[in-house]
Amino acid sequence: MTFNDDSRLSGGKVQRRGRGAAIGGGAVGIGAIVVFLVAQFTGVDLTPFLGGDGTTQIQQQGDTVDAASRCRTGRDANLDVECRMEGAAESLDAYWIRESRDLGTDYATPGFVLFDGSTGTGCGQASAATGPFYCPPDRSIYLDTAFYDNLQSRYGSSGGPLAQMYVVAHEWGHHVQQLQGTFAATDRSGTGASSGSVRVELQADCYAGAWVGAAATTKDADGQTFFEPITRDQIRDALSAASAVGDDSIQERATGSVDPDSFTHGSSAQRQAWFTRGYEQGVTRCDTFSVPGSAL
Fold first, then answer.
1. TM spans, by residue (predicted)?
2. 290-294 own/partner pairs: CB under 8 Å, 24+ apart
């Protein structure tokens, strides 16, 4: 999507953590947590990358600062990825403040942390390899923007601005699910094409699509719309990202085969379909839990 050049960014939604100095050794269990998070995002077992004792190196957390203090307008967001993250966050916040009232959800803004290389979270130590994720104990989104290079070069997405913002909108959807009690109510321990974990992920994709569908009408504090009207090419950009992170696509690239019984996020086709459903029909049509597995 393209920001309106004159839309105003208020700042304060996105924080940047500086790179910390590495400290020796590791903490027992931290490596396993990181590998779990990678597996949840990709469906690929990265256990071989752990040290022999199941540990991984930790970095000291650097200072946290306002990532967007220099980002003032939509023009800035069109030119700079961190400003784009700030602009997306402000638009998402404005959208969900409105939609949550209609859904009967008590909304609160999530944390949104950009980091380089490694950072500590309430879900354990995160690294660039972890990929973007939402941490329920922190109620925060964590993202190393280097992931966007991988999204294009490794995962095969077109990697444009809306592909990048789709990733954020998906994680923001997880925050809404946390507020709705979806995480607590859903058994996410299983795997498979119609498992609870897949239903959670597909709903987050639908929530992302619903935001995109309303983004061109969502306004900043001055009443200016954040974005110009969405184009078909931009929607294809978002769909390319949804396809790139489908379980089947990732598994085939990693192993040369596909195992639907191990799916945790849904196939490329499912992720595209639910994003499109949200985009075309809105957030109230994102109930992935009441439909049979064959309709996912």
1. 21-41
2. 292/194, 293/193, 293/194, 294/194
End-to-end CA distance of the chain: 27
Which tens digits make up the pLDDT trace of 20-64?
423 222 221 223 333 344 444 434 333 333 333 333 333 344 567
Residue 189 corresponds to which tokens in the numbers above? 């321990």
Residue 102: other Cβ atoms inside 10 A: 10
**Domain contains 142:** yes
| Residue carrying structure tokens 């094409």 | 193
Domain that holds residue 34: 15-295
Calpha distance 186→12 (Å, rounded)? 32
d(CA 134, CA 149): 20
Per-residue pLDDT reduced to its tens digit, 274-295: 999 999 999 999 999 999 999 9
Residue 10 lies in a domain: no
Check if the beta carbon of residue 86 is closer than 8 Å to that of residue 112.
Answer: no
Q: What is the dihedral of CA 217, 219, 222, 228, to 10 degrees?
A: -60
